[in-house]
Amino acid sequence: MELQCGVCLLRTWRKSDAGPIARHANDREVWLNLRDLFPHPYNTAHAVAYIRSVTAQTPTRSFVIVVADEPVGGIALRLGEDIERYSAEIGYWIGRAYWGRGIMTAAVGAVTAYAFASLGLLRVFALPFSDNAASVRVLEKAGYVREGLLRCSAIKAGRIHDQYLYAAVRPNASHDLAPAGESPAA
Ligand SMILES: CC(C)(COP(=O)(O)OP(=O)(O)OC[C@H]1O[C@@H](n2cnc3c(N)ncnc32)[C@H](O)[C@@H]1OP(=O)(O)O)[C@@H](O)C(=O)NCCC(=O)NCCS
Predict the structure, then answer these.
(1) pTM above 0.90, yes or no
(2) Of 104, 131, 161, which is best to mutate to test ligand 1, by the most ligand atoms within 8 angstroms of its C-beta?
(3) Cα-flanking dihedrals φ and ψ of residue 3, to 5°?
């Protein structure tokens, strides 16, 4: 499937994305703002394993970011469970050569709209490090609201970080009405 967002195309992953994606992902400046789950150094085998892990997903929750036919980054939703099953965390990265062109702002907007309209979610949140000014700006431009500061909540590369909690809530979401198929007593 594809989401067209003007400056980029978001589509489901293909095996052939592995080579170019590994080249863009193999960058300490990218890794420094991501979970340790994202490998560093990052090689083609890492990309192949990731692509294999997400291609069977239904519905699609992970997209490769494509600019001028080049796969240059990734954006994904991690679904909540149990009482948080109508929430997801959004995570994203793009190769350094593509920073500052408005690409991630468009991608976050498109995936958030997809989460509400196609996955039926009520809430999408993100946890950028408090000093990740570019990511904070992306979230604010995409309409996310800062809900809090999680002090000393993460450790990355030997440094303790605070994380901001940003979230977008589905337009017209109401506390009174359970989503379709959910009885109030469930
Ligand atoms: C964060 C990241 C996704 C941003 O992607 P991008 O495509 O460059 O984002 P955009 O171009 O849509 O917007 C970036 C905004 O941040 C601003 N910005 C960039 N660096 C900044 C800084 N150091 N201080 C303040 N603002 C900054 C840009 O000027 C732009 O805002 P503007 O449009 O008002 O000028 C990209 O830098 C990245 O992949 N970083 C590494 C991984 C990462 O941090 N992922 C997010 C984890 S929460």
Answers:
(1) yes
(2) 104
(3) -120, 120
